[in-house]
Amino acid sequence: MTVIPHWIGGKEYPSAGERTAPVYDPALGAETKRVSLASAQDIESAISSAQKAFPTWRDLSMAKRQRILFRIRELLNERKGELAEIITSEHGKVVSDALGEISRGLEVVELATGFPHLIKGEHSENVSTGVDVHSLKAPLGVVGIISPFNFPAMVPLWFLPIAIAAGNTVILKPSEKDPSAANWLAALFTEAGLPGGVFNVLHGDKEAVDGLLEHPEVKAISFVGSTPIARYIYETAAKNGKRVQALGGAKNHMLVLPDADLDLTADAAVNAGFGSAGERCMAISVIVAVEPVADELIAKIQERVATLKIGDGRRNCDMGPLVTAQHRDKVASYIDIAEADGAKVVIDGRGIEVDGAAEGFWLGPTLIDDVPVTSKVYQDEIFGPVLSVVRVGSYEEGLELINSGAFGNGTAIFTNDGGAARRFQNEVEVGMIGINVPIPVPVAYYSFGGFKDSIFGGTKAYGLQGFNFYTREKAVTSRWLDPSHGGLNLGFPQN
Ligand code: NAD
Question: Where does the record place the Aldehyde dehydrogenase domain (predicted)?
């Protein structure tokens, strides 16, 4: 069976160790490959390769770095179909959705091509007589990116183009569940002219992650994944003196006001609740229906779900399988909990018929009404195609519910009342807000990130915040000596 190697120094790098993990094709329910799990020696090789490449990459002219980024953009755009097939074969999401995540990643590459404008410093003349100050944004050195399974191309691309544009060298530790996209990207970046060692892929588990967190040569860590691991990454990286941004899990609410267009709202709820089988950190997982809309909205969602085709993502289906059997079973267990907690399972995804292999990791779209807010079904991030409905009596009650949650990643309001929407954007304690937009992932020139347990660290992903994260400012005070500057004065410099 194929063992996926690391990518270090511009080429495939077979592991020096023996440990591997299985990689499945979720629609077939079969192990199709294995992936190397980094040994201590592999970790050292990746870091030393990135470290060696840094000074030359940092000093390469901006124009040359820019040309490489343009070439990456062109190649990725031409060959995105190949990458989408790879993503579907390991993640399970349908091919059109895999293409969607690649286009959102491409946006960040496009932003990064304009990097010279975004990392310019400032200049002030004559801050004191004959003295000038200027600032410049210098790269950090070797930086680590640790990414989750659910966006194997987009999440690395949130960070990678900006980190390298700013002059850093990178070690990406992708999810071990769908590792091939990272190697494919590394090969493509190399083909585009990126020198060896600037972008390395280190596969592995906790051992690889801890190796990056503890190594003094790794200057910064960007992490995306579940909240408990995000918290661990934040604490451990900070303890080791690193700059860190760690984006965690989510539980995103859609607040539906009585004046909303219920047909459009039902479309949005189905798309955002069941797209990518609910394995999106910006998926809608709770509908907060301000009465009297709940019954009518549920009926419209039922009609729509009945038309969805569930099956192998390579066969023009609407929704694919979950990523692993273990994850499918965990998600399905929440449907049992909902029943035990007295909620009403309106659409039950257990035991659905699919267009694909019987052994695939299937779970159909599930809609649960009257979910008690004390239930784990309401409180936990389920990360699957399970949409809860909570009925409330007013806007205020809905807002209070959203603001009392542990997470603050995304939310959406559905209404035709501009005043209510404006009030919501002011009052809701969530980082990314949609107004009649169910998955409000910001475009590349804004930044991505939530509040509360959905993010640890002060900086969001991409946009200007991304450039700030991957650079550190130097402030230079200079004067060109003339005889009038002489003389001794041990006092503190004043202007
Ligand atoms: P995960 O936390 O299990 O894994 C993320 C990464 O951490 C992987 O590379 C994994 O190998 C590594 N990891 C796992 N356990 C570890 C440990 N004990 N020590 C060190 N490293 C460890 O997350 P996942 O299941 O791959 O992804 C789904 C989660 O990611 C969901 O919670 C989802 O909400 C979240 N997510 C958040 C965002 C966001 O922007 N906020 C975006 C995408 C996904």
Answer: 17-476
The CA distances from residue 385 to 202, 347, 369, in Å, are: 31, 11, 14
Enter the ipTM.
Answer: 0.99
Buried b (16+ CB within 10 A) or exposed e, 403-417: bebebbbbbbbbbee
Pocket test for ligand 1, best of 150, 154, 172 (most atoms within 8 A of CB): 150
As a whole number, mean pLDDT of residues 54-80 equals 98
Helix, strand or coil for residue 31?
strand
The number of CA neighbours under 13 Å toward the Cβ of 221 is 35
**Strand, coil or helix: 380:** coil
Query: Collapsing DSSP states into helix, strand and coil, what is residue 427?
Result: helix
| The CATH classification of domain 3-248+454-476, taken from the options 3.90.226.10, 3.40.605.10, 1.10.10.10, 3.40.50.1370 | 3.40.605.10
Q: What's the mean pLDDT when you consider all of the chain?
A: 97
pLDDT at position 351 is 85
CA distances from 91 to 84, 231, 310, 386 (A): 10, 25, 15, 18
d(CA 278, CA 97): 12
The residue extents of the domains of the chain are: 3-248+454-476, 252-435
| Of residues 53, 50, 151, the one with CA closest to residue 108 | 151
Ligand 1 atom at minimum distance from 205 CA: 11
pLDDT band for position 494 (50/70/90)?
Answer: confident
Query: Residue 483 above 80 pLDDT?
Result: no
Ligand 1 atom nearest the C-alpha of 247 is 41
Residue listed under structure tokens 């003196």: 241
Per-residue pLDDT, 73 = 98
